[in-house]
Protein backbone atom coordinates (compact mmCIF):
# COMPACT_ATOMS: atom_id res chain seq x y z
CA UNK A 1 0.00 0.00 0.00
CA UNK A 2 1.31 3.42 -0.92
CA UNK A 3 0.28 7.04 -0.68
CA UNK A 4 1.59 8.41 -3.96
CA UNK A 5 0.20 11.91 -3.76
CA UNK A 6 -0.97 13.95 -0.83
CA UNK A 7 -2.46 17.42 -0.84
CA UNK A 8 -3.01 19.35 2.38
CA UNK A 9 -5.04 22.53 2.51
CA UNK A 10 -5.19 24.40 5.81
CA UNK A 11 -4.05 21.30 7.71
CA UNK A 12 -2.10 22.46 10.79
CA UNK A 13 0.80 24.59 9.46
CA UNK A 14 0.38 23.44 5.83
CA UNK A 15 -1.43 26.16 3.89
CA UNK A 16 -1.74 24.52 0.48
CA UNK A 17 0.95 21.94 -0.16
CA UNK A 18 1.18 18.93 -2.47
CA UNK A 19 3.57 16.07 -2.01
CA UNK A 20 4.57 13.15 -4.23
CA UNK A 21 5.90 10.02 -2.63
CA UNK A 22 7.47 6.90 -4.10
CA UNK A 23 6.09 3.41 -3.66
CA UNK A 24 7.87 1.07 -1.24
CA UNK A 25 10.41 3.74 -0.40
CA UNK A 26 11.66 5.18 2.88
CA UNK A 27 10.84 8.88 3.14
CA UNK A 28 13.20 10.47 5.58
CA UNK A 29 11.65 13.71 6.84
CA UNK A 30 14.06 15.81 8.81
CA UNK A 31 14.08 19.32 10.16
CA UNK A 32 14.25 21.41 13.29
CA UNK A 33 11.61 21.19 16.02
CA UNK A 34 8.08 22.50 15.38
CA UNK A 35 8.38 22.69 11.57
CA UNK A 36 5.60 20.29 10.55
CA UNK A 37 7.21 16.82 10.41
CA UNK A 38 4.69 15.20 12.76
CA UNK A 39 1.86 17.19 11.16
CA UNK A 40 2.61 15.48 7.86
CA UNK A 41 2.41 11.95 9.22
CA UNK A 42 -0.61 12.96 11.31
CA UNK A 43 -2.39 13.73 8.01
CA UNK A 44 -1.63 10.24 6.64
CA UNK A 45 -2.70 8.69 9.96
CA UNK A 46 -5.94 10.70 9.79
CA UNK A 47 -6.71 9.29 6.33
CA UNK A 48 -6.32 5.82 7.77
CA UNK A 49 -8.13 6.16 11.11
CA UNK A 50 -10.31 9.28 10.71
CA UNK A 51 -8.97 10.62 13.97
CA UNK A 52 -5.69 12.09 15.09
CA UNK A 53 -3.22 10.39 17.43
CA UNK A 54 -2.58 13.72 19.17
CA UNK A 55 -5.93 15.36 19.75
CA UNK A 56 -9.65 14.67 19.92
CA UNK A 57 -10.37 18.25 18.86
CA UNK A 58 -10.96 18.37 15.12
CA UNK A 59 -10.63 22.15 15.28
CA UNK A 60 -6.96 21.85 16.38
CA UNK A 61 -6.19 20.32 13.00
CA UNK A 62 -7.53 23.29 11.06
CA UNK A 63 -4.96 25.96 10.36
CA UNK A 64 -5.46 28.89 12.70
CA UNK A 65 -7.86 31.56 11.44
CA UNK A 66 -9.45 29.14 8.94
CA UNK A 67 -12.70 27.23 9.07
CA UNK A 68 -12.02 24.03 7.20
CA UNK A 69 -9.25 21.73 6.05
CA UNK A 70 -8.80 19.26 3.21
CA UNK A 71 -6.67 16.12 3.05
CA UNK A 72 -6.65 14.61 -0.41
CA UNK A 73 -4.66 11.58 -1.52
CA UNK A 74 -4.00 9.28 -4.42
CA UNK A 75 -3.37 5.86 -2.98
CA UNK A 76 -2.34 2.54 -4.45
CA UNK A 77 -3.83 -0.45 -2.67
CA UNK A 78 -3.52 -4.04 -3.95
CA UNK A 79 -2.61 -2.65 -7.38
CA UNK A 80 -5.84 -0.59 -7.50
CA UNK A 81 -5.83 3.19 -7.49
CA UNK A 82 -7.87 5.06 -4.92
CA UNK A 83 -8.70 8.73 -4.71
CA UNK A 84 -9.63 9.79 -1.19
CA UNK A 85 -10.62 13.12 0.24
CA UNK A 86 -11.50 14.26 3.75
CA UNK A 87 -12.94 17.69 4.41
CA UNK A 88 -13.21 18.85 8.00
CA UNK A 89 -15.55 21.77 8.36
CA UNK A 90 -17.46 23.08 11.39
CA UNK A 91 -16.32 20.13 13.55
CA UNK A 92 -17.64 17.59 11.04
CA UNK A 93 -15.85 15.15 8.74
CA UNK A 94 -17.01 14.80 5.13
CA UNK A 95 -15.58 11.82 3.26
CA UNK A 96 -15.20 11.24 -0.46
CA UNK A 97 -13.97 8.31 -2.53
CA UNK A 98 -13.37 9.17 -6.18
CA UNK A 99 -15.19 12.42 -5.33
CA UNK A 100 -18.38 10.53 -4.37
CA UNK A 101 -19.57 11.11 -0.78
CA UNK A 102 -19.04 8.21 1.65
CA UNK A 103 -21.63 8.25 4.40
CA UNK A 104 -20.39 5.51 6.72
CA UNK A 105 -17.04 5.95 8.46
CA UNK A 106 -16.60 2.16 8.42
CA UNK A 107 -16.62 2.26 4.60
CA UNK A 108 -13.63 4.61 4.66
CA UNK A 109 -11.51 3.51 7.64
CA UNK A 110 -8.91 1.00 6.60
CA UNK A 111 -8.82 1.85 2.86
CA UNK A 112 -5.48 3.35 3.85
CA UNK A 113 -3.90 1.11 6.45
CA UNK A 114 -1.21 2.98 8.35
CA UNK A 115 0.65 1.86 11.45
CA UNK A 116 2.16 4.49 13.67
CA UNK A 117 5.00 4.40 16.12
CA UNK A 118 5.31 7.58 18.19
CA UNK A 119 6.98 8.18 21.56
CA UNK A 120 3.64 8.69 23.34
CA UNK A 121 2.66 5.15 22.32
CA UNK A 122 4.94 3.85 25.05
CA UNK A 123 2.28 4.99 27.51
CA UNK A 124 0.29 1.96 26.39
CA UNK A 125 2.29 0.00 28.98
CA UNK A 126 1.49 2.31 31.91
CA UNK A 127 -1.96 3.67 31.08
CA UNK A 128 -5.24 2.14 32.17
CA UNK A 129 -6.51 -1.10 30.52
CA UNK A 130 -8.88 1.02 28.39
CA UNK A 131 -5.92 2.15 26.25
CA UNK A 132 -4.66 -1.38 25.73
CA UNK A 133 -8.16 -2.53 24.73
CA UNK A 134 -8.36 0.43 22.34
CA UNK A 135 -5.10 -0.70 20.74
CA UNK A 136 -6.54 -4.17 19.99
CA UNK A 137 -9.89 -2.80 18.88
CA UNK A 138 -8.35 -0.26 16.52
CA UNK A 139 -6.33 -2.92 14.75
CA UNK A 140 -9.04 -5.58 14.64
CA UNK A 141 -11.57 -3.07 13.32
CA UNK A 142 -9.27 -2.53 10.33
CA UNK A 143 -8.69 -6.27 9.89
CA UNK A 144 -12.17 -7.74 10.37
CA UNK A 145 -15.64 -6.45 9.49
CA UNK A 146 -17.23 -9.16 11.73
CA UNK A 147 -15.25 -7.81 14.66
CA UNK A 148 -16.47 -4.26 14.02
CA UNK A 149 -20.15 -5.18 13.84
CA UNK A 150 -19.95 -7.59 16.79
CA UNK A 151 -18.18 -5.06 19.00
CA UNK A 152 -20.69 -2.31 18.32
CA UNK A 153 -23.57 -4.75 18.90
CA UNK A 154 -21.98 -5.80 22.22
CA UNK A 155 -21.60 -2.17 23.29
CA UNK A 156 -25.26 -1.48 22.49
CA UNK A 157 -26.50 -4.54 24.42
CA UNK A 158 -24.23 -3.73 27.37
CA UNK A 159 -25.78 -0.26 27.60
CA UNK A 160 -29.28 -1.74 27.47
CA UNK A 161 -28.47 -4.37 30.09
CA UNK A 162 -27.08 -1.68 32.41
CA UNK A 163 -30.20 0.39 31.87
CA UNK A 164 -32.40 -2.61 32.70
CA UNK A 165 -30.36 -3.22 35.88
CA UNK A 166 -31.02 0.37 36.98
CA UNK A 167 -34.83 -0.07 37.00
CA UNK A 168 -36.57 -0.24 40.39
CA UNK A 169 -38.22 -3.48 39.35
CA UNK A 170 -35.66 -5.53 37.47
CA UNK A 171 -37.11 -7.61 34.64
CA UNK A 172 -35.25 -10.94 34.97
CA UNK A 173 -36.41 -12.26 31.63
CA UNK A 174 -35.08 -9.16 29.88
CA UNK A 175 -31.73 -9.44 31.68
CA UNK A 176 -31.51 -13.09 30.53
CA UNK A 177 -32.07 -12.06 26.91
CA UNK A 178 -29.37 -9.38 27.10
CA UNK A 179 -26.96 -11.74 28.85
CA UNK A 180 -27.43 -14.35 26.18
CA UNK A 181 -26.79 -11.79 23.42
CA UNK A 182 -23.68 -10.54 25.18
CA UNK A 183 -22.36 -14.09 25.50
CA UNK A 184 -22.82 -14.71 21.76
CA UNK A 185 -20.90 -11.48 20.96
CA UNK A 186 -18.23 -12.19 23.57
CA UNK A 187 -17.52 -15.62 22.09
CA UNK A 188 -16.54 -13.94 18.82
CA UNK A 189 -14.70 -11.00 20.35
CA UNK A 190 -12.75 -13.03 22.91
CA UNK A 191 -11.57 -15.56 20.33
CA UNK A 192 -10.49 -12.80 17.94
CA UNK A 193 -8.74 -10.69 20.58
CA UNK A 194 -6.98 -13.68 22.11
CA UNK A 195 -5.88 -15.00 18.73
CA UNK A 196 -4.68 -11.52 17.71
CA UNK A 197 -2.49 -11.15 20.83
CA UNK A 198 -1.10 -14.68 20.45
CA UNK A 199 -0.20 -14.01 16.80
CA UNK A 200 1.19 -10.56 17.55
CA UNK A 201 3.49 -11.65 20.35
CA UNK A 202 4.72 -14.60 18.28
CA UNK A 203 5.84 -12.18 15.57
CA UNK A 204 7.22 -9.66 18.07
CA UNK A 205 9.30 -12.38 19.75
CA UNK A 206 11.06 -13.02 16.45
CA UNK A 207 11.80 -9.32 15.93
CA UNK A 208 12.73 -8.21 19.45
CA UNK A 209 16.21 -9.83 19.54
CA UNK A 210 17.26 -7.47 16.72
CA UNK A 211 16.89 -4.54 19.09
CA UNK A 212 18.36 -6.12 22.18
CA UNK A 213 21.88 -7.23 22.95
CA UNK A 214 20.71 -9.03 26.12
CA UNK A 215 18.90 -12.35 26.13
CA UNK A 216 15.53 -11.01 27.21
CA UNK A 217 12.25 -12.81 26.76
CA UNK A 218 9.16 -10.84 25.94
CA UNK A 219 5.61 -12.07 26.23
CA UNK A 220 2.00 -10.85 26.24
CA UNK A 221 -1.18 -12.34 27.61
CA UNK A 222 -4.78 -11.43 27.02
CA UNK A 223 -6.52 -11.23 30.39
CA UNK A 224 -10.22 -11.84 30.76
CA UNK A 225 -12.72 -13.18 33.29
CA UNK A 226 -13.11 -16.67 31.81
CA UNK A 227 -10.78 -19.19 30.31
CA UNK A 228 -10.80 -19.14 26.53
CA UNK A 229 -11.01 -22.82 25.61
CA UNK A 230 -13.36 -25.25 23.85
CA UNK A 231 -15.97 -24.69 26.59
CA UNK A 232 -15.98 -20.91 26.19
CA UNK A 233 -19.77 -20.63 25.94
CA UNK A 234 -20.27 -22.75 29.07
CA UNK A 235 -17.62 -20.75 30.92
CA UNK A 236 -19.37 -17.49 30.02
CA UNK A 237 -22.83 -18.76 31.04
CA UNK A 238 -21.45 -19.96 34.37
CA UNK A 239 -19.61 -16.66 35.04
CA UNK A 240 -22.72 -14.56 34.36
CA UNK A 241 -24.90 -16.83 36.54
CA UNK A 242 -22.46 -16.37 39.39
CA UNK A 243 -22.30 -12.61 38.99
CA UNK A 244 -26.05 -11.95 38.57
CA UNK A 245 -26.72 -11.19 42.24
CA UNK A 246 -23.84 -8.70 42.32
CA UNK A 247 -25.00 -7.08 39.06
CA UNK A 248 -28.45 -6.55 40.58
CA UNK A 249 -27.00 -5.21 43.81
CA UNK A 250 -24.72 -2.67 42.07
CA UNK A 251 -27.14 -2.01 39.18
CA UNK A 252 -24.46 -2.59 36.58
CA UNK A 253 -22.75 -5.34 34.55
CA UNK A 254 -19.67 -6.29 36.50
CA UNK A 255 -18.27 -8.83 34.05
CA UNK A 256 -17.49 -8.49 30.39
CA UNK A 257 -14.95 -7.88 27.71
CA UNK A 258 -15.28 -4.14 28.43
CA UNK A 259 -13.02 -4.77 31.45
CA UNK A 260 -10.32 -6.92 29.84
CA UNK A 261 -6.62 -6.14 29.67
CA UNK A 262 -3.37 -7.24 28.04
CA UNK A 263 -0.37 -7.97 30.16
CA UNK A 264 3.03 -7.24 28.60
CA UNK A 265 5.91 -9.16 30.18
CA UNK A 266 9.68 -8.86 30.12
CA UNK A 267 11.46 -11.91 31.52
CA UNK A 268 8.20 -12.95 33.18
CA UNK A 269 7.57 -9.65 35.02
CA UNK A 270 5.15 -6.88 34.14
CA UNK A 271 7.04 -4.60 31.77
CA UNK A 272 6.21 -1.54 33.86
CA UNK A 273 7.93 -2.95 36.91
CA UNK A 274 11.22 -3.90 35.25
CA UNK A 275 11.86 -2.36 31.83
CA UNK A 276 14.04 0.61 30.94
CA UNK A 277 12.80 3.25 28.46
CA UNK A 278 14.99 1.66 25.76
CA UNK A 279 13.54 -1.79 26.44
CA UNK A 280 9.99 -0.45 26.30
CA UNK A 281 10.75 1.30 23.01
CA UNK A 282 12.23 -1.90 21.56
CA UNK A 283 9.22 -3.94 22.76
CA UNK A 284 6.83 -1.49 21.16
CA UNK A 285 8.77 -1.42 17.90
CA UNK A 286 8.73 -5.22 17.81
CA UNK A 287 4.95 -5.15 18.35
CA UNK A 288 4.41 -2.60 15.59
CA UNK A 289 6.58 -4.46 13.09
CA UNK A 290 4.86 -7.69 14.11
CA UNK A 291 1.54 -6.02 13.41
CA UNK A 292 2.74 -5.01 9.95
CA UNK A 293 3.59 -8.67 9.32
CA UNK A 294 0.12 -9.83 10.42
CA UNK A 295 -1.51 -7.27 8.11
CA UNK A 296 0.73 -8.43 5.26
CA UNK A 297 -0.26 -12.06 5.78
CA UNK A 298 -3.95 -11.17 5.89
CA UNK A 299 -4.17 -8.61 3.10
CA UNK A 300 -1.11 -9.54 0.98
CA UNK A 301 0.25 -6.03 1.24
CA UNK A 302 2.19 -4.14 3.84
CA UNK A 303 0.57 -1.21 5.59
CA UNK A 304 2.23 2.21 5.47
CA UNK A 305 4.59 2.64 8.39
CA UNK A 306 4.78 6.00 10.16
CA UNK A 307 7.74 6.29 12.50
CA UNK A 308 7.59 9.55 14.43
CA UNK A 309 10.80 10.48 16.21
CA UNK A 310 11.75 6.83 16.36
CA UNK A 311 15.50 7.35 16.50
CA UNK A 312 15.79 9.36 19.68
CA UNK A 313 17.00 7.17 22.56
CA UNK A 314 18.27 4.52 20.12
CA UNK A 315 22.03 4.20 19.82
CA UNK A 316 23.66 3.98 16.36
CA UNK A 317 23.75 0.19 16.37
CA UNK A 318 20.05 -0.07 17.20
CA UNK A 319 19.21 2.54 14.56
CA UNK A 320 20.94 0.44 11.90
CA UNK A 321 19.31 -2.74 13.21
CA UNK A 322 15.92 -1.09 12.97
CA UNK A 323 16.52 -0.02 9.36
CA UNK A 324 17.62 -3.56 8.46
CA UNK A 325 14.49 -4.98 10.05
CA UNK A 326 12.09 -2.78 8.04
CA UNK A 327 10.37 -4.88 5.36
CA UNK A 328 11.58 -4.09 1.84
CA UNK A 329 8.26 -3.65 0.03
CA UNK A 330 6.79 -1.17 2.48
CA UNK A 331 6.28 2.59 2.21
CA UNK A 332 7.78 4.21 5.28
CA UNK A 333 7.86 7.73 6.68
CA UNK A 334 10.45 8.55 9.32
CA UNK A 335 10.51 11.92 11.10
CA UNK A 336 13.60 13.07 12.91
CA UNK A 337 15.60 16.15 13.77
CA UNK A 338 18.86 14.47 12.77
CA UNK A 339 20.46 14.04 9.39
CA UNK A 340 21.44 10.44 8.76
CA UNK A 341 24.15 9.25 6.48
CA UNK A 342 22.55 7.67 3.37
CA UNK A 343 24.97 4.73 3.65
CA UNK A 344 23.08 3.68 6.82
CA UNK A 345 20.20 2.64 4.56
CA UNK A 346 22.33 0.24 2.48
CA UNK A 347 20.75 -0.46 -0.89
CA UNK A 348 17.22 0.44 0.26
CA UNK A 349 15.39 3.11 -1.74
CA UNK A 350 15.32 6.24 0.41
CA UNK A 351 14.40 9.86 -0.25
CA UNK A 352 15.36 12.75 1.98
CA UNK A 353 13.11 15.71 2.64
CA UNK A 354 13.72 18.85 4.60
CA UNK A 355 10.66 20.18 6.42
CA UNK A 356 10.71 23.85 7.25
CA UNK A 357 7.80 26.04 8.40
CA UNK A 358 5.15 23.91 6.74
CA UNK A 359 7.01 23.43 3.48
CA UNK A 360 8.67 20.29 2.20
CA UNK A 361 11.72 20.16 -0.06
CA UNK A 362 13.36 17.04 -1.43
CA UNK A 363 17.10 17.16 -0.89
CA UNK A 364 19.71 15.04 -2.57
CA UNK A 365 21.66 12.44 -0.63
CA UNK A 366 24.62 14.73 -0.25
CA UNK A 367 22.30 17.38 1.33
N1 LIG B 1 -3.89 24.43 13.80
C1 LIG B 1 -2.67 24.92 13.53
N2 LIG B 1 -2.54 26.02 12.75
C2 LIG B 1 -1.33 26.53 12.44
N3 LIG B 1 -0.17 26.01 12.89
C3 LIG B 1 -0.24 24.91 13.68
C4 LIG B 1 -1.49 24.30 14.04
N4 LIG B 1 -1.24 23.24 14.83
C5 LIG B 1 0.10 23.17 14.96
N5 LIG B 1 0.71 24.15 14.28
C6 LIG B 1 2.15 24.44 14.17
O1 LIG B 1 2.80 23.26 13.72
C7 LIG B 1 4.12 23.27 14.26
C8 LIG B 1 4.39 21.93 14.93
O2 LIG B 1 4.54 20.99 13.94
P1 LIG B 1 4.92 19.49 14.28
O3 LIG B 1 4.19 19.04 15.49
O4 LIG B 1 4.74 18.73 13.04
O5 LIG B 1 6.44 19.66 14.68
P2 LIG B 1 7.69 18.73 14.35
O6 LIG B 1 8.36 19.27 13.13
O7 LIG B 1 7.28 17.30 14.34
O8 LIG B 1 8.59 19.06 15.60
P3 LIG B 1 9.33 18.14 16.71
O9 LIG B 1 10.62 17.74 16.09
O10 LIG B 1 9.51 19.11 17.81
O11 LIG B 1 8.41 17.02 17.05
C9 LIG B 1 4.20 24.37 15.29
O12 LIG B 1 4.90 25.45 14.71
C10 LIG B 1 2.74 24.72 15.53
O13 LIG B 1 2.57 26.07 15.87
What's the arrangement of secondary structure elements?
Elements: E1 2-11, E2 14-20, E3 26-30, H1 37-49, H2 58-61, E4 68-77, E5 80-89, E6 92-97, E7 100-102, E8 114-117, H3 129-143, H4 145-165, H5 172-207, E9 218-223, H6 232-250, E10 261-266, E11 269-270, H7 271-274, H8 277-299, E12 304-308, H9 316-325, E13 332-336, E14 350-356, E15 359-363
Parallel strand pairs: 3-13, 3-14, 8-12, 12-13
Antiparallel strand pairs: 1-2, 1-4, 4-5, 5-6, 6-7, 9-10, 10-11, 14-15
Helix pairs in contact: 3-4, 4-5, 5-6, 5-8
The site of adenosine-5'-triphosphate has 18 residues, from α1.
Structure characterization notes:
By secondary structure, this protein is an alpha/beta fold. The chain contains 9 helices and 15 strands. Strand 14 and strand 15 form a beta hairpin. The radius of gyration is 23 Å and the shape is globular. The chain starts with a strand and ends with a strand. It binds adenosine-5'-triphosphate. Adenosine-5'-triphosphate (ATP) binds next to helix 1.
The best one-word shape is: globular
- Ions, cofactors, ligands: which are bound? adenosine-5'-triphosphate
SSE series = EEEHHEEEEEHHHEHEEHHEHEEE
Main β sheet profile: 6 strands, antiparallel
Number of helices: 9
Class computed from helices, strands and strand pairing: alpha/beta
Strand order of the largest sheet: 2-1-4-5-6-7
Low-confidence stretches: none
Brief overview:
The chain has 367 residues and is α/β, with parallel strands linked by helices.
Descriptive terms for the model:
single chain; 367 residues; alpha/beta; Rossmann fold; Glutathione S-transferase Yfyf (Class Pi), Chain A, domain 2; 2 domains; six-stranded antiparallel beta sheet; six-stranded mixed beta sheet; 9 helices; 15 strands; globular; binds adenosine-5'-triphosphate
Amino acid sequence: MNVNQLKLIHFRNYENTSFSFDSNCIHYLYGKNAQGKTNLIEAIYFLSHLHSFRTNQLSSLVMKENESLIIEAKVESNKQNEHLKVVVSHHKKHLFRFLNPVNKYSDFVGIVNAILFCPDDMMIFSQSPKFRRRFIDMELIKLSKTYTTTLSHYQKILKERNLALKQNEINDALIDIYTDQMIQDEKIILNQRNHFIEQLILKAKQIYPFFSSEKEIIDAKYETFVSIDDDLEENLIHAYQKSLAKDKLYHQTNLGIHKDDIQFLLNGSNINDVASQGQKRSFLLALKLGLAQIIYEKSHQYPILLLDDVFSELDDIRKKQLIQKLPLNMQIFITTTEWMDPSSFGSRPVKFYKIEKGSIKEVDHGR
